[in-house]
Amino acid sequence: MLEIERKFLIVETLWDKQVKNGYAEITQGYVLNSIEKSVRIRINDDRAFLTIKGPTKGISRAEYEYEIPKIEGEEMILSLSLKVLKKRRYEILFEGKVWEVDVFKNELEGLILAEIELESEDEKIILPNWVGEEVSYDAQYYNTNLINRLS
């Protein structure tokens, strides 16, 4: 499956005013993390997923995701001693598209990123007022690189 995604920083003063209807608590750790590919375990509230991603080309990459038992996801993170990102994810419907807004925790506290998945790389979108600078092509904002900031 092909994932096409754009990523943006948030204008925090405007984001704070956005109505939010619930969120998910996410913990994710990387089993493999390289430029060519990544393999991660994600715990999303009461569900867990194993995700394999290929190299990023533009704003696209191959992505394969499989639901796994939550207990096994938790065991893998612990038994493999994976560093984990923790974040709170909000889903906001705007102009017919779902925006995923990640509010990072712990060592990455203060970082808030919005992502939107597209049907094609040239798909036109309308940005909510709380969306700021686009960082889709800035590798420092990829989760695979954010994990390297953790001690």
Number of H/I helices? 3
Rounded to an integer in angstroms, the radius of gyration calculated over CA atoms is 15 Å
Shape: globular
What is the arithmetic mean of pLDDT?
A: 95
Q: Helix/strand-derived class?
A: mainly beta
Which range does the strand content fall in?
over 45%
Helix content: 10-25%
- Count up the domains: 1
Order of helices and strands: EHEEEEHEEEEH
Got a strand count? 9
Features:
47% strand; 3 helices; 151 residues; Hypothetical Protein Pfu-838710-001; 12% helix; mainly beta
Structural summary, described in words:
With about 150 residues, this protein is mainly β. It has a single domain (about 1-150), classed as Hypothetical Protein Pfu-838710-001, CATH 2.40.320. The chain has three helices and nine strands. The protein has helices at about 10-15, 70-80, 145; strands spanning about 1-10, 25-35, 40-45, 45-55, 60-70, 85-95, 95-105, 110-115, 130-135. The protein has an eight-stranded antiparallel beta barrel with strand order 1-5-4-3-2-6-7-8. A hairpin with a 2-residue loop joins β6 (about 85-95) and β7. The model has no long low-confidence stretch (mean pLDDT about 95).
